[in-house]
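Possible regression after last week's pipeline update?

I re-ran a chain I had predicted before the update to compare outputs. Posting the input and the new output here so someone can diff against the archived version. Not blocking, just want to make sure nothing changed silently.
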Amino acid sequence: MGERSAVVEGLRAYRLIAGMWVRSSMTYRTSFVVTMFGNLAMTGLDFVGILLMFSQVDSLGGWSLPEVAFLYGLSATAFGIADLVLGSMDVLGARMRDGSFDTLLVRPAPVLAQVGADRFAVRRLGRITQGALVLGWALVSVDVDWSAAKVLLVPVMVVSGAAIFSAVFVAGAAFQILAQDAAEVQNAFTYGGTTLLQYPPTVFGKDLVRGVTFMLPLAFVNWVSASYVLGRPYPIGLPQWAAFAPPLVAVGCCALAGLAWRSGLRSYRSTGS
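New output (post-update):
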């Protein structure tokens, strides 16, 4: 009962803090619109790079442009949602250096909710929009014999992928507490992870594919299930039921990230100590 109450209180605190930042960003609406479209254009350059690549080749690792666009759209949309919700976690190190993290510890609200909602930026909707547009084009263009299971897997991958990336954000923030910053390490697994997943697993070595499947299971954001949807064998030969495992992987990642966060908070030592 106490755990449930803490979750409800955390969500309430997050909503209030995020709402404050949304109202602040809406004060200058023209600036907000320009910034959001600028963010959409900047994130779109990643896909432009893929289009330029396919102007010179017919396939990438044996995957066609619509199939790579399918991977890209899933990864970018899932990451965009996580970045919108918890993208401010990477500034935790700066808060510890300037001592402002201590003020969060004495406020009557869960620290994770405060850090996650800090500087909530609606402009990050541009990344989600761009990823969703590419995903929509890929769904129309890709050559797939659609079944009910495959159709259902698409939204499941997006939601589960967002949860997995969110867990990585939280675990990275916990590591920042232990390491007294190291935001670059966190970014390597979040921003670097979504870039990795935008390309077919067949272009990478099997050791890397195993690493992001079993050690840091980012492959369950899109690689594993997308391979099933597209009718392609996964490079390391997983059983077919693994395509339906992303929700379980997401729950496990979130649970482990929660434990890491609590451990990080317990080990925190104020800058004034």
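Follow-up from reviewer: compared with the archived run. The CA atoms of residues 101 and 197 lie 33 Å apart. Marking as no regression found.
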